[in-house]
Amino acid sequence: MKTLRHLLFMLLTAAVFAGCTPENQPGSEASGLDVNLEIPAEITLTQGATAIEFNVIDGKNPKQSDIIILDGPAGQKFCKILSSTPAAIKVELYTGFKEGNHKVSVQRNLDVKALGTTKISYAKLADDDIKPAAGSTIYGKVSCNGEGIEGVVVSDGIQVTATDRNGVYQLASEKKHGYAFISVPSGYEPPLDIAFPQFYKYTQKSTSAPERLDFELIASKDQASFNLLVFGDLHLARRHNDLEQFPRLADDIKSLVSSHPGELFYGVTLGDMVHDQYWIPNNFGFLEFKNEMKRLSGLHVYQTIGNHDHSIAYDNEQEALIDYRRNLGPNYYSFNIGNVHLIALDNIECITDQEGLAVGSFNSHKYKVVIPDEQMQWLKKDLAHVSKDKIVFAFMHSTWHNNPGTKSYSNGFNLDNGQDLYNLLNTYQEAHVFSAHTHLMWNVKNDKTYEHNAGAVCAAWWVSGYLSPGIHIAKDGAPGGYHIVKINGRNVSWKYKGIDLPLSTQFRTYDRNMIDLSPEKNVPNANAKHRAEYEASAKEWLTKGEDNEVYINVWNADYDWKVVVKENGTPLTVTRLKFTDPLYLHSALAKRQNSNDSSDGAHTYHMYKVVASSPNSTLDITVTDRFGNEYKETMKRPRPFSIEEYKTY
User: Which of 9, 289, 487, 603 is 20 to 30 A distant from 192 in Cα terms?
Assistant: First the structure.
């Protein structure tokens, strides 16, 4: 039966088109339809128009039951004829009409006649005609060179909307946070104040009074490929010679950018740019931080808030945000570059101090690591404007997951509502979360999401460079530095860049036979408390080694990295273990003496060990990252252990 139906269909089709020559096939100029319309080169519609009119030539108007086809930016669309007279016809525009060039045709049954091509657009709305809509308290225009930009997402931190075809937006805002901001669209950049993108405007009028806030953007170069520099924990506070050391970061970045001419670079901090405890006693707060950032003038550096960026002059979350918002803008927001949607989140919620510390005392706030409900609701609204094929980057100060330790996968969430965030991000093609706070480095994979606990620019609060000039090292042995995230279309890769170190330096080696961190040699003048703290941290290194062990600290390693060590061509067994870093202990903790210049050494899971056959053999070490990049060192032993041996400047 199926075969018979198919045969009958083929015969019927042949009969319908029998005798059709190329001149009278549907859609040809030789169509038998006796319809003739005037199709002007351009048609300008009034704002809000939902229909379009065409004049009829020689009284040859279509039937009202005919269809007008508009073939343009939205594809081929079939439009209903609302009225038809010998003088003119009125046609309903298709839903979601897109401005641009359209081929116009008329169809009756299977007969189609092409009528011409026209450019259809809406009349531009003059700036003077932009008025607040009913209930709107914040409104305005987002434009580039005076031309409105459609589809730009605008928010007050609670409500979220998008601009219309004229670049106009309306927000029914209660002005709770005192500003409105845009999610900078791909292909554009906001104006800069030093190195700070100006994507937000402060409100000035009362809660119910409508006010206009306009945003002007600058067209960017092609953003399909770009570099994102990620800076964890700067902790500038006018202590430990930090203001003398910070220029090394600026010089390092300038050198990096100049070595990649023509490439786009952007930056983002991960919080704790300053240190609340030292705002007053050291006279260093956000204004002074902004002044230091002149060293990076011209680089778009977006900010993320940290726990030490909350003002200790107030005892609740909203008031603790006042200084940050006044100086650096919204504490959460989003923006877009190329194929990536980027979100800065505030996962620090200050809580009332349960110990009753006096307001304004120089002790940092107690806080919860959570994305508060109001912010989470905003995030859902923001992501509703982001297609699922986008790559998403999120930035937060405290970590999303717990340190995975010996695992390559999630070890649970540190963020109170971490599962809720996972449920949102894991629906996208790929999502990366960059966090800081720990001054450590580790990575965790969780399905389509990936967290980078990204280390610290200041390493261990600038201490090692202060106590041991030439050494800039964190508690886990990682150098102070920053991530370079490379986006090439839809491909994401990353490397860590130690300040004053070449990109080819991704690990450090130690010859255990040459290391003796005994208290008698390293903390001879320490009091009992400091000596006890030192011995607790340095316990793996307190006696001189004699077993030909070599340790390799691969600070940004995840479990897709490989470490291969050969001795005279023979591979050695490589063991990954939990261990402290001897150079940090020697350059920072041992020299701390009785001050509070640094914290104890931290055990790291990115330390590797091999055992050589002799104290004098040369080792060939190859470290391969997850992208196949190889980093090599020929380690000649015995290798000395000293500040001079490891200095980078």
Answer: 487
